[in-house]
Design goal:
2% of the residues lie in helices and 48% in strands. It is an all-beta fold. It is globular, with a radius of gyration of 18 Å.
């Protein structure tokens, strides 16, 4: 992880460095959020030290989160997969990854509801792993994904993609056999966040090193490179798949990218240390977690402006959207009674759907 952290220090480092403590503690007491505009309802809980990312399982109505404690170069001292009730925000179960010399610490995460599994990145072990959603049992570990950072599941094609930051590569696995099936490398790149268009099968990666998006389409011989903002860490797609949004950490912006034309059409200032981006399928708005600003920006990408700013606990690290315009943000605030990081649920105020985003029927919102 040292190579990424060095780059991040040059562009507001604390936004990417893992802020781990020395122990893993759980709690479930909800407190009201503060600094929130009228309309959105915010609930926060101190959850666990070392929170990193979350993923929502529609099949099981469960929010999953990864937590790993131990700031490099110190070893990982604890790591868990947390199964969380999305309504009460209580931890229902905590599963410990296997240890083989070192703890197989979990960081990036996505769910495969078709096969009822979880895919995670074991960044410090240069691997990805698969777990059962039903039992939390570790099913497999796949090596040779150097500085594995994020993972995304394409359920329609039974494909799982992982970003290998140190290799400058995107690595694909068969979600049925759990075996590697494809590897696409871009020399000199540093892929971080991932998004997949399940209608076309194209996968998109934010290239943090080169301020661009890497597009890999099914059957393509070479990846397509598309410019975006400065220091992109995370990427999401509009519901029609025609537009990409990147959270640009270096500039504190969200870029709106026309994927057909391969151009940036808008750059929206969101806040210092823009770290993670997700899309609200109900409204079509994009949400950006601003690590250094301690906020979540709700962006109307068509108008190119922030329509709402929600204050979070310090150092928000990742945002995940679920149905019904509900966002879950994990942070690295250490603000809990015993130093826990927090989970914030934000039920967004109703917004009219964007007129230009017509990918078909929207979910019930």
């Amino acid at each position: 992880m040292a190579s990424l952290n060095r780059r991040v220090r040059r562009v507001a480092a604390t936004a990417v460095a893992l802020a781990f403590g020395s122990a893993l503690a759980l709690t479930g007491t909800a407190t009201a959020g503060t600094g929130t505009p009228p309309g959105s309802h915010v609930t926060s809980v101190p959850l666990a030290q070392g929170l990193y990312q979350s993923a929502y399982s529609e099949r099981n109505d469960v929010l999953w989160a990864t937590a790993s404690v131990g700031q490099p170069p110190a070893p990982v001292t604890a790591s868990q997969l947390l199964r969380i009730d999305p309504d009460t925000l209580e931890v229902e179960a905590a599963y410990t990854p296997p240890t083989n010399g070192t703890v197989e610490a979990v960081y990036g995460i996505d769910v495969d509801d078709e096969h009822n599994t979880l895919w995670v990145t074991n960044t410090r072990n240069n691997s990805v792993a698969v777990y059962s959603q039903k039992t939390g049992r570790h099913l497999a570990t796949r090596l040779n994904v150097n500085h594995s950072r994020e993972v995304v599941v394409d359920e329609k094609r039974d494909v799982v993609w992982a970003s290998a930051f140190s290799d400058g590569a995107l690595v694909a696995f068969d979600s049925r056999t759990l075996k590697e099936i494809r590897r696409v490398a871009v020399e000199g790149s540093g892929p971080t966040g991932l998004a997949v268009n399940e209608r076309t099968g194209a996968v998109y990666a934010a290239d943090f090193t080169n301020n661009q998006i890497i597009e890999v389409a099914p059957g393509s011989r070479a990846p397509r490179l598309i410019p975006t903002g400065e220091g992109p860490l995370s990427i999401a797609l509009s519901t029609d798949g025609r537009t990409a949004y990147t959270a640009d950490q270096a500039s504190g912006t969200m870029s709106v990218v026309d994927l057909r034309r391969g151009t940036v059409t808008k750059s929206v200032a969101t806040g210092a240390g823009a770290k993670s981006v997700a899309v609200d399928a109900c409204s079509g708005h994009a949400l950006v977690a601003n690590r250094l600003a301690g906020s979540l920006s709700v962006v109307d990408p068509r108008a190119g402006r922030v329509v709402e700013t929600v204050t979070t606990d310090a150092y928000p690290n990742h945002v995940r959207m679920t149905g019904g315009s509900t966002a879950y943000v994990v942070d690295k605030s250490g603000s809990g009674p015993t130093g826990e990081d927090g989970l914030t649920r934000i039920r967004l105020s109703p917004q009219a759907p964007l007129r230009h985003d017509s990918a078909g029927p929207r979910p019930a919102c």
